[in-house]
Amino acid sequence: MTEKPKTxxxxxxxxxxxxxxxxxxxxxxxxxxxMMEKADESVKATFxxxxxxxxxxxxxxxxxxxxxxxxxxxxxxxxxxxxxxNYDLVVKELRANFTEKxxxxxxxxxxxxxxxxxxxTADVKAxxxxxxxxWSLKSR
Length: 140
Prior knowledge:
The chain is mainly alpha-helical and 140 residues long. The protein has four helices and no strands.
């Protein structure tokens, strides 16, 4: 087949003409399919060729802990905003409906609760920094 055909698909300079057949047992097949899923490869033949000839293939790992952490953090800060709105309402009601002595007593309790909330926020920030460091190490 030295002549160039006039129609059809152009000839490839490096045609794949040799075929090798491999049989796997159940354990090997499961292992192969898991490796293919990790590498996000859909064609078995190209995946096996990449493994044999040492071509690099990518392995993507998904960690759902980041998504869960972000969702919980969003919920936490939504509650924080709600507390801020309620804080303003409580202070307005204390000024309007209570005597100065009672209002000061309740404001003192509210101040202590606010300090505790600030400590919790500092702890959350520290945990977020720690989680960010761990996540950045995993992504490298």
